[in-house]
Amino acid sequence: MPVKAQPVKLDLVLNEVTAVGSLIADEAVMVRPEIAGRVVDLPFREGQAVHKGAKLVVIDGSEYDAVLAQAKADAKTETQRYERTIDLFKNKFVSQDAVDVAKGNMDRAVARVQENDARLAKTTIYAPFSGIVGLRVISPGAYVKAGDDVVRLENTSSLKLDFRVPEMYVSKLKTGQAVSVRTDAYPNEVFEGRIYALEPSVDEKTRTVVARAQIPNKQGKLRPGMFGRVNVLLESRPNAIIVPEQAIWPQGRDSFVYKVVDGKAVLTKIDIGNRRPGEVEVAKGLVAGDVIVTDGQMKIKDGAPVMVLPSAPPPPPAVAGPTSAPKAGG
Question: 3-state class of 172 per DSSP?
Fold first, then answer.
């Protein structure tokens, strides 16, 4: 029986899983004061890149400065009293109890100095990390209370991407795996990154696990909050066996191909791996060099003799027509 057949193909197969996720800043914080007061300076420009330690907000500290000065004076007085009490105790004019009281008063005074010094320090807010400041929501001269929003600071030199993967892929997920991301804002560009953390538990409602990838953003194209379509490379097989999709002969839940052996068709059960347009990976059942029937399976059965038809010759290359030499000008 004449049939068409061809050897199996060896090719690189990438086992990928697709998901969707959201981009978030590598570091992000809403700058808020810890104390109340009047804002006297906002020494930054909106949208400006700032370094770690840059001054962002200055609150009027005159009141806190005065309280600190009073606390220092009290501490100095209590320290002197303690020293005089020690001298009196050495000369047996006061008891140990008097020494302990003076020591306690001095320690409390010193602690108040430290407390007020810390409050005064909070009148200036510095950038906790390098990043870009957003749009401020107050102006110089405004009175703020503790916890009021001032401006958002985000580090977008690299972004995090959170996405969910079905639990069936959990065993194949690991840190260090490559991911590629596409966004609606840049549909023709692919941004590369790597998974660096996995949620330790599977969500009971969605049966998914959250993975987090790091995406470099040196050109600043990506923004926090963007929607991303993610491809995760789970594994690659460089010499996978590939057959045309039409060569598969399904029977019930199993898949078969006809393998040509010594001029006969041998029905061979196979396990299917990944699929791609027009082709199927065979995970088990075939080896390199096997020849399989690609057309004519309906006319044969297991053990039937077959004649492999020759492949159609490639079309002849186009031949350019004769060209006439240019004539020399008269």
Answer: helix
Tokens at residue 275, please? 């699929």
pLDDT band at 317 (very low <50, low <70, confident <90, very high): low
With beta carbons less than 8 A apart as the criterion, state whether 175 and 122 touch: no
- Per DSSP, 305 falls in state B
Sign of CA dihedral 7, 13, 18, 22: negative
3-state SS, residue 274 = strand
Beta bridge partners of 257: 268
- Partners of 320 in beta bridges: none
Based on the domain organization, do 245 and 262 belong to the same domain?
yes
| 268 alpha-carbon distance from chain centroid | 44
Strands 178-183 and 191-198: antiparallel
Q: Where are the alpha helices (DSSP H) in 41-199?
A: 62-90, 96-121
Q: Is the pLDDT of residue 53 over 60?
A: yes
Could you give the CA distance from residue 282 to residue 265 in angstroms, rounded to a whole number?
Answer: 18
Question: Mind listing the pLDDT tens digit for each residue in 306-316?
Answer: 888 876 555 56
**211 in a domain, yes or no?**
yes
Looking at the structure, do residues 165 and 222 belong to the same domain, yes or no? yes
Residues 65, 106 contacting (CB under 8 angstroms) = no
Sequence letter at residue 56: L
